[in-house]
Amino acid sequence: MKSSSLSIDGLKKGMEVAKGYTIYKDSIIKKTDYYDIAGMAPAGSINSNVSEMANWVTTWINGGKFNGNEILPSSYVREAMSSQMVISPAIPDKEIPDAFLSNYGFGWMISSYRGHYRVEHGGNIDGFSASTSFFPSDSIGIIVLSNQNASSIPGIVRNMIADRILGIKPIDWNGRRNNADAKAKKEEKEAEKNVSSNKKLGTNPSHKQNDYTGLYNNPGYGTFEITNRNDSLIMFTPNGDLWLRHYHYDVFEGLGIDKEEGIDTSQKENIKLQFLQTVAGEISSVLLPLQGGLKDIEFTRSTKAKEIVKGELEKYVGEYELTPGTNAKLYIKEGKTLYAFIEGQPEYELVPTEKNKFDLKILKGYSIVFDENDKGEITNLTFVQPNGNFKAKKIK
User: Fold this and answer.
1) 0.90 cut: is pTM over it?
2) How far apart are CA 45 and CA 5, in angstroms?
């Protein structure tokens, strides 16, 4: 498997590599970007071709050997392609009574295909679909690769080839799939008649749009950014961008933004984002329903640092009197970062977020707002905290 690779970089360096495509609105074919899946590589990072995948399948059919050399221990091969757990009941239907069983081995799906033992695993990643299968008792291997996202082609072609090679009466697999799709669409339309919206009319967001902007992070799911662009909230994610449309209260719905077509308002089911706030009234996080069966995943908000010219920090430097005998000192370290220090407390690194406003980097919900006179001079600062605001006059 000399040209196979396990990363997008490897794919891009390959010769005559395929480009991925997707179907937009059931009829428009569009090219997709390669998905860099390095973070969860075993789920779909293998880049290969039918010739080299055929060598891989041959190795499994031969009990782990290729060209007489043991690549995989035979004991492991037997275990991996035998049932280890049940996936679903997979009871045969009346039309195809000899196709049943749905179990799982070690990385392989096990089934009885029309009386023949089949070991198989499909795959789908942005722009590509695949099926790799073999019939160990018949010494037959079938690999079908397609450069179309979420395509049914690999499964259909696999079954058509299997019917011919196994010498059994062919089934119109393509027709069955078309009928199944048509039935599903009809049922979907019927189901829509019984669905009513839970949207509360006449409500407004509790904050102005800028207050929802920032970076949102979850340790397990990563970070995305929400910005205010042309009076619209835009959510930027590694898997595509969303326009956030107000739904009700502090709930917004995300509508996909196509690079060519723009915002897709035809979507019936849009992800809902519920924003939360602190007792001080600041947007603190957002909940996203990303995984069925689990509570909505919370992403904590942090304000994106605003670029500030080095010389602009100088005007904030000085001492500010909080109470008689208690001063806050503001100073610059390393020539680029503003810090605040109050006796008896640790020093706080300040992150510029708006004009004359800084957040305390390590404390959520805490910030400092500076007052500026007509001459551009700083006269006061206010510590904004969950338990209140505390003003201090500049004395030095």
Assistant:
1) no
2) 8
